[in-house]
Fold N-acetyltransferase domain-containing protein.
Amino acid sequence: MSISITTADVSLAPSTANAMVSARWKDPHWVSLFKPDISSSKVTFDTAQRLPWNLINGRASNRHQIAVDDTTGEVVAYARWILPVHLISAVVWPESQVQECTKEKRAEFQQMFEDVGDRGLRMDLLEFRSTPLEEIDARIKESGPFLELDYLATAPQYQRRGIGAMLLKAGLEVADAHGLKSYVTSSVAGVKLYQKHGFEIVETSTINYSQFGGVEPVTNYFMIRKSQPKT
């Protein structure tokens, strides 16, 4: 298997969306955020429609990478990082900054994003879930600055092959080069990967979804990695 790590591109939005959603669709807690009649194919289509705008919006602070199977040309994993404010105006990690597009394309991508609407999300459950997480997130970020890993997903058939680690290491090298701590919020599935690369759990949040039909609580792990200068 040959895998290439490169910058995300709007032209690969459908393939990237497929990797993102197929990875998340294994998690029943994530699936429960959508109304029962919403299928994975519908979520994938909506994600592909929204993704070009998500890639180019916030271009100054966001860095996006994908892993591509060199044999099939398919995107198999995606990572999004957010630079700290003090580095936004600097030329940091430019090879992972999505290429700028024309004003006409920006308008087109924004309209595609807006046309998707609420994506079939259960907004009451989303708010119930998000409120405590956002409170902890805001408190932790006061101890920054951080290079934040905002999203990391690998398609199921490519998991446990070191691809997520490849994307993770790329960002951590940037963090170390600039003396930055790194920060991520993880589900239980990702904790071991992050711990293996130096992250430590600093706080957890367990949410009981029973009033929304959930069968068991779900725990989120807030994790920080200190900068590790080269020796």
